[in-house]
C-alpha cells in the first residue's frame, strides 16, 4: 500500500498554501491601509461627498463637445448646465478620441520607421536612427510645445496674403485655426476656412501628432527587434519562391513579428493614452483637464481625481483586453 507523503513535501500543496498566504497578507495590508485612511479622514474632518458629481458644472471649455446624458444614456452636446459627471465624461470622450487617433498614427509611423532602421540603404537607415534617437531623448512636453507653438500657431491664417496650406490635392487644409480633412473651402471674414469634413483644432492636432510621433520612436525599436527575432531563413525562403523583399517582409516576416511584439506594443499604447493628460499644457480639454476644473470649482479634489483614476484604469484595461484578444487570435491562426 502506497503511503501518502506529508503535505510539507507535496510541491502542489505548498504552492497552493503560498498563494493563500499571499492573498491573506495582501488582504490584511489593504484592510489596514483602509482603516488608517478612514481614521485620517475622521481626524481631518474629511467626508466624501459624491453628490458633487450631480451638481451643475457651470463651465464651458471649447474642446468639450460631446457627452452622455446620464438620465437618458444618450450622446448629446455638452453644455455648461450639464452635471459635473457629464463634464468629466465629455473629457473622457476627448481622451478616447486622442488615444484612438494617436495609436493608429503611431503604429503606422512606428512600423515604417522600424522597417527603415533595418534598411540596407545606408542613408535611409541613418535617417531612421536619427528620427528614433531625437524623439526618444527629448521630453514629450517639449515636443508638444514645439508642435503647438512652433508649428500650428505659425501656420498661415487663411487670408489672401497668407493662404492656407493644402495637402494631398486639397484633401487636407492647414491653417493656424487647425487641420481639416475634406469639406469645402469658404470665405469667412476675409479668410478661407474649411466648412464640413473632419476638423481638428490646433490644440487637438498638435496633441495627436505630438503623441503619435513621440510614441512611434519607441514602437520603431519594438518593430525592429521583432523583425530581427524572425529567422533569416524565412526571408531567404520567400526570396527563393520569387517574392520581392517588400512582399517577403509584408507577407512572411511582419505577420510573425507582430505575434512577438504585441505585449511591448501594448505598453506603448497604454503610455500614449496616459500621456494624453499632458494636453493640459497646450490648453486642450481632456479627462484630466475637465476633472481639474471640477475640482477647482467644487473644492472636492478627492472625489474628482478618484473618478479620473478609475476612468484611466478602465480605459487601460480595455486596451489590454483588446490586445490580448488579438494576440490569442494570431496565435491560433
UniProtKB/TrEMBL annotation:
Main location: membrane
NCBIfam families, sorted: HEQRo_perm_3TM
The entry's keywords: Amino-acid transport, Cell membrane, Membrane, Transmembrane, Transmembrane helix, Transport
Taxonomy, superkingdom: Bacteria
Membrane topology field: Multi-pass membrane protein
Gene Ontology cellular component annotations, sorted alphabetically: ATP-binding cassette (ABC) transporter complex
Cellular compartments annotated: Cell membrane
Positions of the ABC transmembrane type-1 domain: 92-323
Protein family: Belongs to the binding-protein-dependent transport system permease family. HisMQ subfamily.
Lineage of origin: Bacteria, Bacillati, Candidatus Sysuimicrobiota, Candidatus Sysuimicrobiia, Candidatus Sysuimicrobiales
Protein name: ABC transporter permease subunit
Metal-binding recorded as keyword: no
Entry-linked PROSITE patterns: ABC_TM1 (PS50928)
Pfam families in UniProt: BPD_transp_1
Transmembrane segments: 12-37, 98-118, 138-155, 204-227, 248-266, 304-326
PANTHER family listed in its UniProt record: AMINO-ACID ABC TRANSPORTER PERMEASE PROTEIN YHDX-RELATED, MEMBRANE COMPONENT OF AMINO ACID ABC TRANSPORTER
UniProt-listed GO biological process terms: amino acid transport
GO molecular function, one term: transmembrane transporter activity
Amino acid at each position: 500500500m502506497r503511503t501518502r507523503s506529508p503535505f510539507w513535501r507535496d510541491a502542489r500543496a505548498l504552492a497552493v498554501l503560498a498563494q493563500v498566504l499571499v492573498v491573506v497578507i495582501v488582504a490584511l495590508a489593504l484592510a489596514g491601509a483602509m482603516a488608517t485612511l478612514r481614521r485620517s479622514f475622521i481626524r481631518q474632518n474629511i467626508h466624501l461627498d459624491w453628490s458633487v458629481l450631480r451638481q451643475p458644472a457651470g463651465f464651458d471649455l471649447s474642446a468639450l463637445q460631446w457627452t452622455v446624458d446620464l438620465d437618458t444614456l444618450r450622446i448629446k452636446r455638452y453644455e455648461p448646465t450639464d452635471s459635473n459627471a457629464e463634464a468629466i465624461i465629455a473629457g473622457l470622450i476627448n481622451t478616447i478620441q486622442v488615444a484612438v487617433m494617436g495609436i493608429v498614427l503611431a503604429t503606422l509611423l512606428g512600423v515604417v520607421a522600424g522597417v527603415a532602421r533595418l534598411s540596407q540603404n545606408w542613408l535611409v537607415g541613418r535617417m531612421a536612427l536619427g528620427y528614433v534617437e531625437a524623439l526618444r531623448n527629448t521630453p514629450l512636453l517639449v515636443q508638444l510645445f514645439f508642435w503647438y507653438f512652433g508649428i500650428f500657431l505659425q501656420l498661415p491664417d487663411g487670408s489672401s496674403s497668407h493662404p492656407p496650406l493644402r495637402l494631398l490635392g486639397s484633401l487636407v487644409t492647414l491653417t493656424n485655426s487647425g487641420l481639416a480633412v475634406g469639406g469645402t473651402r469658404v470665405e469667412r471674414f476675409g479668410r478661407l476656412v474649411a466648412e464640413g469634413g473632419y476638423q481638428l483644432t490646433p490644440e487637438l492636432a498638435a496633441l495627436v501628432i505630438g503623441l503619435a510621433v513621440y510614441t512611434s520612436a519607441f514602437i520603431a525599436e519594438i518593430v525592429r527587434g521583432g523583425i530581427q527575432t524572425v529567422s533569416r531563413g524565412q526571408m531567404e525562403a520567400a526570396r527563393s519562391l520569387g517574392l520581392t523583399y517588400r512582399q517577403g517582409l509584408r507577407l512572411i516576416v511582419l505577420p510573425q513579428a507582430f505575434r512577438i511584439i504585441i505585449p511591448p506594443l501594448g505598453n506603448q499604447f497604454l503610455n500614449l493614452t496616459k500621456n494624453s493628460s499632458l494636453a493640459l499644457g497646450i490648453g486642450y480639454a481632456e479627462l484630466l483637464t475637465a476633472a481639474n476644473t471640477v475640482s477647482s470649482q467644487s473644492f472636492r479634489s478627492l472625489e474628482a481625481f478618484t473618478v479620473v483614476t478609475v476612468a484611466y484604469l478602465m480605459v487601460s484595461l480595455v486596451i489590454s483586453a483588446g490586445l490580448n484578444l488579438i494576440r490569442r487570435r494570431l496565435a491560433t491562426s
